[in-house]
């Protein structure tokens, strides 16, 4: 498929999925009435957010918020959350590794207490990767153990590809290498179908509205939708250089958005990588099975040489 054909195809899918979701939303509104979109006013933050060491870092263009455990003198372990989350996704890892590392869990730009510049042009992969690069440098480190989940892992993959010298070790949780993802989505119908929200999220307003239904209790991300089959061209996939830093991929096999095949495929792009599957854990593997995930990370970091 040509570049234009691909763009039209993506636009087509966006429209199809938007129409489907809009229909579902209208149906739910008729069924449940105005309470569908009512949200409770919350004026005090939940108790579990108290007592964390919350800090800010001024980068060249944005100010990012992060939470730290461990001493400033220790090696850096940097954690990058996914969508639609924030630093708190790493609470179990922040506690687990605080004696050995300076653990820093950032809020990426656009999330929670970090700056949220207006306009999609401020959220390119390059800018997100650059934020992380600047964080490592601004905290005074030459390299870090970089841990990423979901879209945060995509940032971590790209950081390891573009700036391997900054990444001591790479830990990826339930997120495929970018090239592996394009290969799997174009050859595996299940993965293609499960990726519907990537197209849907290009629409304005409706995705946010879906997230607030029933006072945020049912993230409609888990909607299960089908569409006609189709493929992206693999011909014009970006050719990315191999991932040089030693890499651990941890994969919850119960992920409904990403098939486990993505993990094994990702290894092909790593010079030195391994996969640990966590049976039955969902996409949010580090919160579902913190003990198992922490053990895998620890064992991986202890292998030296
Ligand atoms: C950050 O997240 C916490 C927990 O969900 C929430 O209480 C707070 O309002 C959020 N702040 C912003 C500015 O998004």
UniProtKB/TrEMBL annotation:
Keywords: Hydrolase, Membrane, Transmembrane, Transmembrane helix
Domain AB hydrolase-1: 75-206
Coiled coil: none
Membrane in keyword set: yes
Residue ranges of the TM segments: 12-30
Gene3D superfamilies to which the protein is assigned, alphabetical: alpha/beta hydrolase (3.40.50.1820)
Molecular function as annotated in GO: epoxide hydrolase activity
Protein's UniProt keywords contain Membrane: yes
Family the entry assigns: Belongs to the AB hydrolase superfamily. Epoxide hydrolase family.
PANTHER family, A to Z: EPOXIDE HYDROLASE (PTHR43329)
Protein known as: AB hydrolase-1 domain-containing protein
